[in-house]
Amino acid sequence: MKLGIDDYAQLESPIHQWLPKYKLIGLTALILAFSFVQKLALLPLMAVTTAMFYQTARLPFKFWRQRLQIPGTFLAVLLLLLPFMAGETVLAEIGPLNIYREGLLAVVQISVRFVCILTLGLVLFGTAPFFESIRAMRSLGLPPILADMTLLTYRYIFEIGDYFQSMRTAMKLRGFESHRLNWQTLKHLAALAGSLIVRSYEKSEQVYKAMLLRGYGQNMTVIYQPKPTRRDSVLLSLTLGLAAGILLAEVF
Amino acid sequence: MHIPDGILPAPIVLTGYAGTGLVTWYSLRRINRQENPQAGVPKASLLTAAFFVASWIHIPVPPTSVHLILNGLLGTLLGYFAFPAILIGLLFQAILFQHGGLSTLGVNALMMGLPAIAAHYIFQLRYRFKITQVNGLAILGFFSGAMGLGLAVLIFFSLLITNLPAGLDVRTEQAAITGLALAHLPVVILEGFFTALLVSFIYRVKPELLPQR
Amino acid sequence: MQNQASELAISTLASTEVKPSSTSALRIVDLCYAYADCPAVLQSVTFNIASGESVGLIGPNGAGKTTLFLSICGVLTPQKGEIALFEQRVQPGKFRPEIGLVFQNPSDQLFSLSVEEDVAFGPVNMGFSHEAVEERVREALQLTGVASLRHRPPHHLSGGERRMVAIASVLAMQPQMVIYDEPSANLDVRSRRRLIRFLQEASQTTLVSSHDLELVLEVCDRVILLDQGHIIADGIASEIMADNALMEAHGLERPHSLSHSQ
Amino acid sequence: MQNQASELAISTLASTEVKPSSTSALRIVDLCYAYADCPAVLQSVTFNIASGESVGLIGPNGAGKTTLFLSICGVLTPQKGEIALFEQRVQPGKFRPEIGLVFQNPSDQLFSLSVEEDVAFGPVNMGFSHEAVEERVREALQLTGVASLRHRPPHHLSGGERRMVAIASVLAMQPQMVIYDEPSANLDVRSRRRLIRFLQEASQTTLVSSHDLELVLEVCDRVILLDQGHIIADGIASEIMADNALMEAHGLERPHSLSHSQ
């Protein structure tokens, strides 16, 4: 099973070297600023900014394309519906259907915002090992219980995903085909989900013991964070400035 | 069923984050009041992972199939850990599969998490009504599961329709929301049955997993 | 040494290929498999297993054993080569009840509320009548000696019990060939001994992969040595496993019980 | 036979009790443990381990080995009896970094996202400075020979690698005593051989439970045989394990490598 958001965390680029804490602040601010944008004139600026960040991060184009595939379907549906549904000004007619100007513009606006925010998210989480990102959140005040839960969940998603694959294979090899909806199918699938949950619970008990025996909860240590360099600060100021600029341009 | 980036106007996005912050804070406060809050962390984490994976199970609903949400069951099993669990689950949906989005994380967490907490309270009714038989628990499980998904569906369509850019009048909006929610009723009921089956499975195999009072 | 071993392999193959009678249980020709972006896991693997044989598959971790099993069962689609089970080509994705796979970890295989349900799962999916299913369940439980556990949830059983129930759940489909992946993993001596006795008496064509070479020696007459996706040796179990140089070259050790014979 | 064995046990005990010097690593007196509604798991278990000893713990599944380990580490609270580690009483729930437990399944123990983080987890919780943690991590990885895996996610390692990383994660706390629960489970021959070499050279006081009696024989001088919560025998490893009647009475088998000696 390959999900790795941080498959390209080992690359080298200015974004990779950016102090995770500052990267988190900067890019989050930018993402939030993006979600405010309504003005059409600002869309090209957003797109260019995003492209610049992705380019600077030196992440492969393939990565972006793959990641866009799943949510792309949603976008396509929107693209097919909105121009016909919403608006007043008729731009064109296709048979009985009207294409509305407002709907069309809304689609453009939504798609650009969507793609830009998603891409920045990829830059944010794709350029550092995942635990570095969580550490950064922790140093910004994410409660320790939440941080521990996030790390542990991520660690075991892969393992429990493997359980799931094996169990499904085993069921298939005993002739199980879940094509028809009936009580039997539902019961077997519930037993599959239930077994998965029970196995995970049993594992969690072992994991907890192992954590305790290595001193879990002994002292809330301060997490080691390297000192920001000048370059980190400059990059942060630039990004925050950009976010502020976009916000101001949107409001006035 | 997640709201992706870019759709909702910024005020709603921010409100979502504020609300999520508040509910998370409250959940953590309740967790920290427990005798040994850290003891629940590995359990909640691994179950979050398990729920994440279990949502890959597809139930055949010819001619297509639906996948489970299980937020009701999550509330049932995890109690106050459910909200942080859902928040984390959604974060992973967003960064691993690009389901939902980073900017809409707050809104989505409220949409899934508040119904999960509701489901938790529904299941806790077993103490009020002193339900100890597996059938009774399964019935509560049904309502927890159906309620968990049902409320989430309602919130989902309300947010989506009322925030469509340009044009629909209030009456059409209401009609659309009701219509779409009703169209999902079979799925809601299916989720209820599935949750009921799961609750009785867990009760028979690992009763200590069902939360104590 | 290796040369001699491959000649051994070829001669075994040849002898079965000369008479491709109805007795062939498994025929694999030139099987290649590679996962995306990885070096090949199976490289031109070719061997035959005659009906009724008990064959051991040995080799270090990562030799390709599990990939081989999943290809035989039609779960994976090999890039090249042919697999035939009982003279019928294996088509990936198609369920073939005549072959059963016992997973390394019984937890991957047992998921129902009771042993009974788990053992009935295969036969029910195969579409048998209630009575026929009942009959098969009874028989499989008896054969594996776990009839007394019938109503217990598999999740509550000990490691040894779970192993036998997992085997029963495969046997209930009455497969003609059974593949066992590390069957003695995590068993204590008593359960392992019981498993060995069971395997010795099993009537199906059997393919066993195991790091437990003493078990292989007790259960199998023939052994195939796989390393890095290649078949290194194929021949009489006690001969191959007694060959210290060959064994050590492929990360194995001559079983202690064979060392006094030299 | 059993009588003779218990005498052996008593004599060993006596000899260490006479001089309760500073060399005692573990002292257990009259330990009893029972889970709710179950027959007792540990019944009046008494033994000593001197500092620097390597002791094997053998017995069938369900003999109470894991319960014993968890009691020693202070995770479980025994109903009766006393446990002292390095002359200090074990208090349930209290973290004692001088003892380390290597779990049977490494994936239960490797809960971080990188090898490095996992190995650092113990020292960080012990409150060491960043530099001291770094030093311990480096040392533990070197000792176990897995320094090259430092930045990898534990989930992607092979079974043998995971085992060594799990050991490193315990050694980084620099415990004086280490307990290994079935360390060779699921290892292939090569990884097992490497583990045995490592255990033979380890300087800590060691307690190893294993169904792999050949491993116990190679690593431990002394063996304790536990069955149904009772200590059945305690003495020289090669003597106890060569005693066929004793071994078979408790669901074990004399290792092959000892059979030629008789």
Q: What general outline of chain B do the C-alpha atoms trace?
A: globular
Class per helix and strand makeup of chain B: mainly alpha
The number of E-state strands of chain C comes to 10
SSE arrangement of chain B, N to C: HHEEHHHHHH
**Any low-confidence stretches of chain B, pLDDT <50, length ≥5?**
none
So what's the CATH class of chain B?
Mainly Alpha
What share of the residues of chain B lie within helices?
Answer: over 70%
Distance between the termini of chain B: 31 Å
Q: What percent of residues of chain C are in strands?
A: 15-25%
Morphology of chain C = globular
* CATH topology term of chain B: Arp2/3 complex 21 kDa subunit ARPC3
Main pleated-sheet profile of chain B: 2 strands, antiparallel
Quaternary class: heterotetramer
- CATH architectural grouping of chain B: Orthogonal Bundle
Round the mean pLDDT of chain C to the nearest integer and report it.
89
Mean pLDDT of chain B: 90
Strand order of the largest sheet of chain B: 1-2
Summarize the structure.
The complex is a heterotetramer, with one copy of chain A (252 residues), one copy of chain B (213 residues) and two copies of chain C (262 residues). With 252 residues, chain A is mostly helical.
